[in-house]
Each structure stands twice: as structure tokens, then as C-alpha cells.
UniProtKB/TrEMBL annotation, chains A, B, C, D:
Recorded family membership: Belongs to the carbohydrate kinase PfkB family.
GO-annotated molecular function: 5-dehydro-2-deoxygluconokinase activity; ATP binding
Protein task: Catalyzes the phosphorylation of 5-dehydro-2-deoxy-D-gluconate (2-deoxy-5-keto-D-gluconate or DKG) to 6-phospho-5-dehydro-2-deoxy-D-gluconate (DKGP).
Identification of the protein by name: 5-dehydro-2-deoxygluconokinase
Pathway listed: Polyol metabolism; myo-inositol degradation into acetyl-CoA; acetyl-CoA from myo-inositol: step 5/7
InterPro entries xref list: Carboh/pur_kinase_PfkB_CS, DKG_kinase_firmi, Myo_inos_IolC, Myo_inos_IolC-like_sf, PfkB_Carbo_kinase, PfkB_dom, Ribokinase-like
Catalysed conversion reaction: 5-dehydro-2-deoxy-D-gluconate + ATP = 6-phospho-5-dehydro-2-deoxy-D-gluconate + ADP + H(+)
Keyword field: ATP-binding, Kinase, Nucleotide-binding, Transferase
GTP-binding as UniProt keyword: no
Amino acid sequence: MRGDNEVKKFSVVALGRACIDLNAVEINQPMEETATFKKYVGGSPANIAIGLAKLGQPVGFIGKISDDQHGYFIKNFMSKAGVDSSQLIFDQDGHKTGLAFTEIKSPSECSILMYRQEVADLFLTPDEVSEEYIMTSEMLLISGTALARTPSREATLLAVEYAHKHDVKVIFELDYRPYTWTSTVETAVYYNLLAQKSHIVIGTREEFDILENVSEGNNQETVKKLFQHTPELILIKHGVDGSFAYEKNGVCTRGYAYKADVLKTFGAGDSYAAAFLFALLQGKTLENALQYASAASALVVSRHSSSEAMPSVAEIETVIAKQTWGDKIHV
Amino acid sequence: MRGDNEVKKFSVVALGRACIDLNAVEINQPMEETATFKKYVGGSPANIAIGLAKLGQPVGFIGKISDDQHGYFIKNFMSKAGVDSSQLIFDQDGHKTGLAFTEIKSPSECSILMYRQEVADLFLTPDEVSEEYIMTSEMLLISGTALARTPSREATLLAVEYAHKHDVKVIFELDYRPYTWTSTVETAVYYNLLAQKSHIVIGTREEFDILENVSEGNNQETVKKLFQHTPELILIKHGVDGSFAYEKNGVCTRGYAYKADVLKTFGAGDSYAAAFLFALLQGKTLENALQYASAASALVVSRHSSSEAMPSVAEIETVIAKQTWGDKIHV
Amino acid sequence: MRGDNEVKKFSVVALGRACIDLNAVEINQPMEETATFKKYVGGSPANIAIGLAKLGQPVGFIGKISDDQHGYFIKNFMSKAGVDSSQLIFDQDGHKTGLAFTEIKSPSECSILMYRQEVADLFLTPDEVSEEYIMTSEMLLISGTALARTPSREATLLAVEYAHKHDVKVIFELDYRPYTWTSTVETAVYYNLLAQKSHIVIGTREEFDILENVSEGNNQETVKKLFQHTPELILIKHGVDGSFAYEKNGVCTRGYAYKADVLKTFGAGDSYAAAFLFALLQGKTLENALQYASAASALVVSRHSSSEAMPSVAEIETVIAKQTWGDKIHV
Amino acid sequence: MRGDNEVKKFSVVALGRACIDLNAVEINQPMEETATFKKYVGGSPANIAIGLAKLGQPVGFIGKISDDQHGYFIKNFMSKAGVDSSQLIFDQDGHKTGLAFTEIKSPSECSILMYRQEVADLFLTPDEVSEEYIMTSEMLLISGTALARTPSREATLLAVEYAHKHDVKVIFELDYRPYTWTSTVETAVYYNLLAQKSHIVIGTREEFDILENVSEGNNQETVKKLFQHTPELILIKHGVDGSFAYEKNGVCTRGYAYKADVLKTFGAGDSYAAAFLFALLQGKTLENALQYASAASALVVSRHSSSEAMPSVAEIETVIAKQTWGDKIHV
């Protein structure tokens, strides 16, 4: 996927939200009984960018954060993690960084209490998106939540136009968060529009249902429709049933889950996307990329945060080496 | 352009605003001195639909109007003019029909005082757009103003998806009205997005500049970029310098203006579009279509309204027969 | 009511909305069949100010209008009518002047189609209210609609503080318009608050019910509660049953209706208030003031507009001289 | 202040916000370097109610909280602290509880990062205020922040009407928070309106400047204007210069500060108000009440929270017994 004689500055530039996770320190109890919270950087595209940086990739980030202590924390953390934060803009209109208080009642009962009213990330404007920045990357990763509101929506659509103009591959992580949207029909309109303009689309089966505005949609029909447009690779995740990577040439490769010692379910999808893109960028086979994705996911769900928890290449490869692939699905 | 063995119910279905024009009865004076106003149906796509109906075409309309006396007037008028108004929906949330008070100080000094706060036409929702209705038409005409606000914006984008699904040609009349938009960069994002999905794009040079977010753009570059996508025909109007119809195959046909006894400038573009599409639907040549367009335009600018003033085929053909085409441009 | 040795510049300064009425020229039919509308200045406090000016009183006006042809028309008309318009401010944020399209199906079936979304009059700010202007008047007339929204609400409350500080009598015309308010309980809170700070309160029995947040309230209880505060005189109108003027000292004077050749019902209350205040300022008895009010009202309902129609002293006194007072109620 | 032969259920009912404080666990450093936060109930009127309950008073609370884990925590905590929480309503429209992240860089450098966008407490509606509840209390304590937005503003104004109707004393704690208000002139309008209707007004000199819309106002003028209306007692705090309690009869009593081992400055005013009201309710002299207030304040600033930190009567009386009063001011 790398151009022959051109060296890009970044493998991936991610666009979207960078937020604060406040994870309950005392776990396995209701949040109203929790007295202490630990602060982490969060937000799907921020987590993916951090994950890729931990895997040694040169990564950039386009986003908007509050001009306050939470914003400073995010910028510092991402810079230290190795993400270029030159395009992480401080909001000058008083908008706040989004918060996610996480409640971990048990490994299978996790919930999030969100603070996302008028959050800074959704106030990124088209004027703030740099064509020069995007053209220096091999891939532009878009998080679906960036489409939820004006002006971030238009900033995102413009970023994708820039990517097309400069032959930058567009990766669309559906990342559907119902609370940011006003209606599912509106979500479907923009998800469909962006998917048609993306080279790789990644999401759960439920998220593709949202994109198509259907219930219990069918993978074959989904990929048939999208392959009429830009997409070359579509990755549909089915939870414990594993995932399916569809290529435009008709080939489908199946992924499986690795066994994990689950602490919580947050962050699984972000580590999955980061490791998958890393493997693709390294020229690995699709099957191998799915292994990297599943291994990274298994590691993150066993840890307390989603960003700090992002694994190294060695950790991922240890999981792949130690566990058997594909004979059965682990829960 | 008509399918071989399929007969469509409508030639054109127009989508967008249907409003009220309140034209000064006492003209050639400032509006603040005007005491009496005459009421007409207005709004670019409504005028085009009425114009096409007057030319004998089967036409439908998708839009939203107020559930009050102004809305009833519009629905009655359009039905009587021969436009199918079954998809002209009454707003149930108290939104008003837009108003345009027109001031005619002199033929060259016309201005409009708009009432467009929270107008019903911009509250058309995706759920209210019927796929069945659109598929029964040969063409779907979109007015650019319908893209200005959520939810009409999403309703419009969805209508275009339906059109593509059913091989309905999409006509995009740019119809740029600055007061409906929050920023030109936002306009550019959506205009560009929709133009890429349209078969025919019609606008003034200034409107194409808005679409491209440039100043003093160049026709050659404009059409080169758009012909990479869906467009087959692009019509760029240069005022008194005439208009240029660009085809994907590289041919450009020039149109000229006919002489007119100008009363006011309103409505010229709408009659132009109506007569142009009529001629195309009749299988006329592009040059002939440009003659119909210019003749219709010359007739409407000499009359008091934009909707009631729409000419008949005979009136248009009389202008074409009487005047010389192309030797010079008339102001 | 005039101070002994102090001469005030104005008898009355009115605060609130000045709008446009668009009255159907063709009457006795539904508005959707009406093609022509005649433009007048409208809005309750504007009408009262114009009415007082026509009766020879020095009158000022505090309000906000659109910076467009409709605003210019209002300012010109009020100035020519003799109202000081130095405090009639042009809105610099694009807010429009309110519109009222009137439908006169029959003398008893009149309705109004309002355009009041984000209207300029409700954007008057506290900073724009001049203490110096208010202190030069004997009376400050407040229209209830000015309380409907922030910032006009706070501008009004501040104006009343200025009036108290400088011993200017506060007249509260309830002027309840449901479409400007979000809830009746909110209306009740502000109506009650302002009534407690007013010297004279004028309204219909239905409007006092809104003030008290009750249904079918009782005049005795209404005045008992309000007389615990600032009010000295309370005027409650009961339609065809006449009106009742309650004084703090316990005296109640009844008013009756004069016979009228009714064209429409709009404007009756405004002419009533104007003539009543005029008579009080002239030192007439309360009974005589009620006669002036009823006579003015009878004259306006027989004419096409509410503002231009305001009668002269001679016209009012002719009605009083010609008709019998009090033996029966005329419809 | 207690009625002779009537026993009220509550000494004080407080109305306003109940929120979440998230206090940095690691103190004396910038917040962006803080990883852990401890959760407490916060918000001025909630703190005062909790403080009064800790001093053994029967206390009620009227407010609105989020229907989520943060809301449940508040309701549980206040109930356990002894505050009647029957009128603490869960918001059914998705509004969140306000958050205050506190940064303690040093005892004198404390700042707060607020999350107050569309917070539940400002969505208390007039319909949700119970006249029956208010009438069962001796005092109604209003926090100024409750006036910042509609509908909480109207709910507050209505609560005060109920208090007057049933001879419940109104206590107004100015509690000015600039970030909740759109303009200082708007704040002045409502602060002045409510102060005129309150029996006791408590605030800092700076807060009274806001009320009067002046800079560097003068206590004598402040109390002269307010004593023309309802107020009987006005308490103006001058930081290290102590505080002044003005009575309508002209007497002024001065309060002094006690020495404290300051950890942070938050919560000082709330403990001050709680202990002052407690002493008044106990029939103590004004000077003694000022001692209780200062002692409580000295205790809270030496502790980590504002709510849990509220002192007992014994703790307060120990401070009063141990320290000298009035010979000098302690910082």
C-alpha cells in the first residue's frame, strides 16, 4: 500500500475526538458507590492513534480539545505517546473536552456515563483541517462520531476530499455512539456517504446495520453495495463469532477471537483497529492482520484503561505464538 | 434521455422550497414607501416545477409548507398549475412558510427582504422523502437551498441516493442564497458533494465559485473536476455574456440572451431552467434548449411575478422566431 | 397625576413591540384566497403611542426594529404620527420586524397569521434602555409581550426599576399573546412580578386569569392581592359586559360599550388604552375616562387598520355626545 | 424568628443546585498532572443544607439532578447526611449533573474546571416547586445561581412568591458564578429583584457590586437601597477584613476571621452561611452568629471537601473557645 518512490511523513493521520476517560478505581461495584476515579486519555480515534504509535508507526492526529487542564493533559499524553499533536487545536470558544465515567460492575456489565454536551471535538471547523497535513500521510482514519454534528461533520467531509485529491487511503471506523446523534436516519445518510468514499471500512455488524438503516442486515448485500464505490476492503465484526474481511475481488478471510482474562470490554475495538492497520502497513497477509487485531484486543480488555493499555508488538506476537488460531471461538 | 420501454409517471420531480413572494404593487420606488403587496407562489424549485407544468410536462414536487393560510394557498396554486402536490407536506411543528418581499426600485435595482427564520421547507425530514415517488420520475431536480440546513439537507442527500438506485437523472440547480447558509466553506462542502452525484449541474459562474470555494474560478477547471464523477452536462451562466453548456465528451455549446423589456430581474433563472429541461426532455439539441431557456427568461423578466409569469411553449417559440440568435448579447 | 412644579417632556413613554400589519385588502373571505395586502404599523404599544399622539399628547417610544425597509417604514410612520422615535433602535444582528397577516372572514371571524420568530422587538437589551429618557416622562407604559423573552424581558424589568427610581407611574397593559410564550406558568411568574410593580394594570378578565395562573378568576380576589403592592388602579375588561375600574380605596366604576359598525375586532384594546390614558392625563373623572376608552374602541373596530385608524378627540367626543351611556351593552 | 405557636417541619428549605465535586487527590500540583480524583457532593445550597443538617437542623432541599449514577450518589449522600431529599427530582430529559474538578496548586492558588452545560439543576421547572413543601419551613434559602437560566429562574421566583404567601423568611445567598450567566447586566436585574423580596441577603462585597451593577460599591448605599424593600438583615463579607451584618434598625455588627490551617479556599462561604443561619435559628446574638460562621469557615478550609467537611457544633464551639475574637484579622 506504500507508494513506490514517495516517502510519506505519517503512516496514519487520525481525525476525530480525543477525550478523557474517568475509570472507577474501585471496580466490581455500582458507580454511585465509587469514590475515586483514575484519569486517562480516551476516544476511539485517539486510542487508535496511540495504539499505532506504541506499535512504532509515525502517526498524526487532527482534533479539537478544551483550552483547560483536561486539554493540556490530552496534548501532553499524546505527544509523549509518540503521536504528532501539532493539529490538536485548543478550542477558543469555551467548549469542553468530553468525559466518559466508566462503571465496571463485572467483566460483562460495563457501562459509561458520558458528558458530551457541546464538546470541543465536534467544533472542529473545515478551516482548521490542513490539506498539507493530510497529504503527508498514507492513510486518513476517520471516526464515525466526527460526523455527528456540524461543523465537525463538514470538517470531516472536507478532509476526505483532500485525501482523495492526494491519493491518501481513507479508513472509516464506524464507531457508532447513539448519544451523539439526533436520529438513526441521519446517521445512515452520513455513514453511507462516507463509506462510499472510503477505501477500508471497519465496524461491527450492528454498526453496518446503522449505516444501511436496516435491522439484521446481511454481509453479502452490505459489501455488494459498497464495492460499487471506493471501498476495497470491508471488515465486519461479529463479536464472539469472529470477524470477516471482505475484499473487492470476492475473497473473504475470517478472523477468530483469542482467549482473554476480561476485566472490562472497553477499548477492544480501538486496539483491534490499531493492530490491524499496523499489520497491513507492515505488508502482512489479511489473515495475519486479523490475528494481530484479535491479539491486541485480547490484551486491552484485560487492562484498566484503553489508551495506556495499548500493547507492544512483542506482547501481541506472544499472544499469537501462545494461542491456537481458529479452531474455536473464545468468549 | 427517456428509457426505452419504460414509461415514467413524471418527467421531473423537484425537491426544495415553495414559498410566498410579496411583490410591491407600486413599483419604481423604495419598499418603505410601498403600501400594497401582491401575493404569489415563489421559491426556485417551485417556480421551475410550475414552469415545466405550464410547458405541458408531468411534474411532481417534494417539499414542506406551513399548516396555515399561506401553506394552503401554495398547495392550491401548485395543484391548479398542474404540479402533483401529493408530496407537499404540511409542517406539524408550527414552522412558517418563507416570505420574500420584493422591492423594484428600477429594472436594475431590485432587492428582496427575506423572512426565512426556521422556515418549514428546511424541516423536510429524510423519513418524509418517498423512494416510490422518486423512482417514478425521469429526473429529480434539487435546489441548492435545500442543502442549507438539517434535516432538509439529509432529506435531500437521501433523495439523491434513491435517484441513483433507480436510475433517475439528478439535476442540481445551485440556487445559492447566502442568507440561508452559515458559512461559504460549509456551502462548498455540500455543493461539491451533491454536484459529484448529479448528472446535470446548472448555475451561474458565481455559484460555481461558491461550489469550488474559489474566487474568479475557471470554467475549464470546474468541468474537468466534476466530469471525474457523475456529471454528464454542466451549464454555466455568465449573465450578459451568455451561458455555456459543457458535455462530458468535450463539446461546449454557447447560449445567448434575447432582448427583453425588463421590469425586474427575479425569476429569470427559474424560467431558464424550466425551459431548458423541457427542451431536453423533448429531445431538442443543446443549442435549441439554450434558445428555449433564454426566451423563457426574457419573457419572465418583463412580468410582475416569477410563478404566474411562466410562459407557454407558444410564447417561447414566438420569441425564438422573432429574434436573432447569437449575433450579439442583449442587456 | 401631573407633578406640581415639574414639567415632564413626555406624558407617556411606551416600551415594547412595533411591527407590521399586513391586512387583507379583499375582506370577508379566507386569507388563502386573498391576493393583496395593505401594510400598516402595528403592535399594541406602538398603536397606543400613535393613538396618544393623535390625541395631542407628547409621547415617546422605546423599542427595536429591523434595519431594513420594514423598519424604516415603522420609524417614518411613527415620527410623522408625532411619536418621538429617538429610542426606536435598529437591530444590528439581522433580526426581523414581526409581521401580522390579518384575515377578516367576517366581523366576528378574524384571525391573525403571525411571523414572530426571533423578532427584533424581543432583542431589546437592558443596555439599550435609557434611564434619562424614562425619567422625562410622567408614565411608562409596558406591553406584556415585552416580557416574553430574554433580553427584552430584562430590558423591561430594568426600565420599571428606572421608573420607580424617578417616580414615573408604571402602566401595565397585559397584552397577552400566547404564541410568544413557552408556558403559561412562565407568563404568570413575570406578569405577577410586573403587576406588583405597576401603578395601573389594564387587561381583560382572561388576561388576569393568565396573570394569576387560574381559570375563571374573580375580580375581587384579583384586586385584593394586587392592591397589597404598588397598584393604585386596576382596569378589568369583560367584553360585551363592559369593564370595571377598581381603585385602591375600594371604589369600582363600571364602563359600558358604545354601538359600533364592526368591520373587524383588531385594535379595539389599543385604542381603548390610548383614550383612557389620555382622559386620565387630562384630569377627567374615571367614568369619563371609560367613556373616552369605549368611544375610541368603537371607532377603531369600524376601520381597516389599528394604527392609522386611531381617532381624534373630536371624533371620540362626537360618539360620546351622540350615544347613550350605560343603559345597555352593545355588541 | 420561630413562630409562637406553630411548629414548622423544617428550619430551612434550600433551593438550587446539588452537584459533584471531583477533588484532586494529589494536591499542590497542576491538575493536568493529577491522575486521581475523589468524588464529593458539591454546590453551594447543597453544602449549606448538609452543613445545617450536621448542626442538627431539620432541613429540606428542592432541586433537580441527573437520572444516572451521579444523581443517585447525590440523593443517597444527602439523605444519609440528614437532608430531606423528597424534592430532589431526577431529570427525565437527559440533563447531566454539574461537575467541578478542583485544582489545588497551593492554599492560595485554587481553581475549578466546571462542567455546567445544560445541567439538570437549571432545568427545575415552576411546576416542580411545591407550595406545600415550602410552607412547612421557617426559612427558604435561595442560591443566586438558581436564577441564571430559564426555567430554574422562574421556579425560583415562584418559590419566593410561595414563601411570601406563607410568611416563610427568604434568605438569599448571592453565590455569584460568572460562567453560568450571559451578562452582568442580566445578573443585576435578577439579583436586585430577588434581593428586594428577601428578608436576609448574604454575599461578598464583590457580589453586591454585581447586584448593583457598579464597581467598588459602598455598603451604606447598598443597604439603604435594599432596606426600602423586604430585607431586614444584610450580611456583606469583605474577605480578610471580616464581615458586616447590617440591620434595618441601623445597627451594624462586625465579624472577624479565625485563624485556619488553610488547605484550599473552596467551601468557606457555604460553611459560613450554614453556621450563621444555625446560630440565628438557635436565637443567638448577631455577634455570636458571626463567630459561629467564622469558626465553621476556618474548619472547612482546612479539609479536603466542602460537604463531607461540614463541622459539628462541638467543633465550631471549640474554635470559638480556643481563639480570640476581633483583636485582629487572620489570613
